[in-house]
Specification:
With 281 residues, the protein is of the alpha+beta class. The chain has 10 helices and 8 strands.
């Protein structure tokens, strides 16, 4: 990877901003598991990123949002200008502040939908303004810097949510609210709750009614939703954990490792052991 310049601003190793200027395309074949929350803003460039085993191609101005635990790989990229925001849960907790910014399950902690938004020229100008203020605050190192930096990060995220809602048509109707509540519930409990009935009971509706709500918004069934989340986590653990397939099965809430193996093989077309061996090689 040929890089012209990387400038980094860092606050106590809990929040950082990198300005990256690439000269040539690069290929990163080795997957990386994300430790903290990340925002990649590709202002000018094109490429293909793999996020949680799905491929996303882009050409132009785009924002990517990554959450802890996700698997990230760069297939190719040719970028003239890019920025990377990186922050820990201790600096800004997405779940705690979700009532304020409504990004949990939309931008972050959303392994079910495309994790990027494309800002317009007007949006870009506003995001630039926030970013300029952020850089200025990094350089000042004045009192209450933590609060100021957090405030600008919060503004950046809020405006990104607005962009996604405008262009991806995220409707605040009953079906969509239920979908978000269900997806967040799955995210919190998929390692121990595997049936649609478990989640329907917690949402106070019948499994049949939950399925009908999903049909109205044209998405996958609740059962497939749960299954795909388990498979994604299984792939992550098989790649980055040193635990045995049996231990991973127990970690994901399967009492019978043989059943987990059949469950995984049916979904991925290879056994957990084969998948683990292939990824290690």
């Amino acid at each position: 990877m040929a890089i012209q310049e990387i400038k980094t601003y860092n606050f106590q190793n809990v929040f950082s901003l990198q300005l990256v200027d690439f000269q040539k395309s690069c290929i990163v074949n080795k997957p990386k598991q994300i430790d903290d929350y990340k925002i990649f803003w590709i202002k000018e460039g094109k490429g293909t990123y793999n996020i949680d085993f799905k491929s996303y191609s882009f050409d132009g101005n785009v924002l990517f949002f990554l959450s802890p635990g996700q698997i990230f790989t760069v297939d190719s990229e040719k970028i003239k200008e890019a920025y990377q925001l990186n922050f820990t849960k201790d600096f800004y907790c997405i779940q705690t502040h979700d009532t304020e910014i409504a990004c949990n399950g939309v931008l972050f902690n959303n392994v079910y939908e495309t994790p990027f938004v494309a800002p317009s020229e007007k949006d870009t100008n506003k995001l630039n303004f926030i970013l300029e203020n952020l850089i200025e605050e990094f350089e000042l190192e004045e009192t209450a810097q933590y609060d100021m930096l957090q405030s600008f990060l919060k503004q950046f995220i809020i405006y990104s949510v607005r962009i996604k809602k405008e262009f991806d048509v995220i409707k605040e109707d009953t079906e969509t609210k239920l979908f978000k509540d269900f997806s967040l519930l799955v995210e919190q409990n998929f390692k121990k709750l595997h049936s649609v009935t478990d989640y329907a009971n917690r949402l106070g509706i019948s499994p049949k009614s939950l399925t009908k709500h999903f049909q109205k918004i044209g998405t996958q069934t609740p059962s497939d939703f749960i299954k795909n989340r388990i498979i994604t986590e299984a792939k992550r653990l098989l790649m980055y954990s040193t635990n045995s397939v049996k231990h991973i099965a127990f970690d994901l809430g399967f009492n019978d490792p043989a059943y987990f193996s059949r469950f995984f093989t049916k979904a991925v077309q290879v056994s957990p052991a084969q998948f683990k061996k292939t990824q290690k090689n």
